[in-house]
Design a protein that fits this description.
The chain is α+β, with helices and mostly antiparallel strands. It is built from 9 helices and 10 strands. The strands form 3 sheets. It has a 5-stranded antiparallel β-sheet with strand order 1-2-3-5-4, with helices on one face.
Length: about 290
């Protein structure tokens, strides 16, 4: 299945954007597809995300970038709000988008820093991550790049607000096979993808399990990827000794990381409901 995306996305307010009207301050992040800048606009600070110049004539990359812009626009309040998209540069321009600036950092950075919120609001963070996955599936898309780097965290009254970002790898939820040169982060790829290049909602659920395991234990569930365990037929997820992690939560994570998709949660909605039930139950126990 080949996804065709036109440059004219219809619902978007399109405008030819002059870089003179946006003062780019600093390059704040760089991914496989795009560069992200902090910038000043007449409305205030914004983030500007531009397709990398080396891909400006690459039709496949442009299409995937534009599809990601479309899904971000659909996604609503659980991610950065798209203000507008347009073409950046001169005659050989690159597509880009101007999006909400979030004063915060990535979940990966908070984990690396050992920020207290990782310990004090673990289930709330996981609940919000699961909600974002559920929402994108309800919109009819697979995210396929769930990882701590792609969740932005800002704080309101001391509480973490988690938003999903980076939609460059999205595919329709009914697609079964990944396209050639699909990409993705090796550590978060499930066995069925590594073996047969199959994609499904279970792939995002597996990646959530990897994220949750790392969040709860401070280490990933395996080194590099599950590939070595698949080669030796020794697939097994073992939790390190963490008395602070309840057995119910360990069971949830292990279910997400099941070897076969059929062993995982049937849907992101079921995953979200289970996380939320655990959050409520453990909150009652602390009273």
């Amino acid at each position: 299945m080949v996804m065709e995306v036109a440059d004219d996305l219809g619902a978007y307010p399109i405008r030819k954007i002059s870089l003179n009207s946006l003062k780019l301050h600093t390059l704040i992040a760089e991914g496989g597809f795009a560069e992200i800048y902090r910038a000043a606009s007449p409305e205030g600070t914004v983030a500007v995300r531009i397709l990398k110049k080396q891909y400006r004539f690459n039709r496949r990359r442009r299409q995937r970038f534009l599809e990601g812009v479309k899904v971000r626009r659909l996604f609503g309040p659980l991610q950065q709000v798209v203000q507008y998209r347009g073409e950046f540069g001169g005659f050989f321009s690159c597509p880009g988008e101007v999006i909400e600036w979030i004063e915060g950092t990535t979940l990966r950075t908070l984990m690396h820093q050992g920020h207290p919120v990782i310990r004090t609001a673990t289930l709330d963070i996981l609940r919000q991550c699961a909600a974002a996955i559920m929402h994108i599936h309800q919109l009819g898309y697979l995210h396929l790049d769930i990882k701590p780097e792609n969740f932005l965290v800002q704080f309101e009254n001391g509480k973490p607000i988690v938003k999903l970002t980076d939609f460059d790898l999205v595919l329709p939820i009914d697609q079964k096979q990944a396209p050639e040169k699909f990409g993705g982060s090796l550590m978060y790829l499930p066995p069925e993808y590594l073996e047969k290049k199959t994609v499904s909602p279970a792939m995002d659920i597996f990646a959530f399990g990897v994220l949750a395991f790392h969040l709860l234990t401070g280490q990933p569930p395996f080194v590099g990827s599950v590939e070595p365990m698949l080669r030796t037929n020794s697939y097994r997820i073992v939790f390190p000794d963490r008395p602070a992690v309840p057995d119910e939560l360990k069971d949830l994570v292990c279910k997400c990381l099941a070897r076969k998709p059929s062993g995982r949660f049937r849907s992101a909605a079921e995953l979200y409901t289970t996380v939320e039930q655990l959050r409520i139950e453990f909150a009652k126990q602390k009273r």
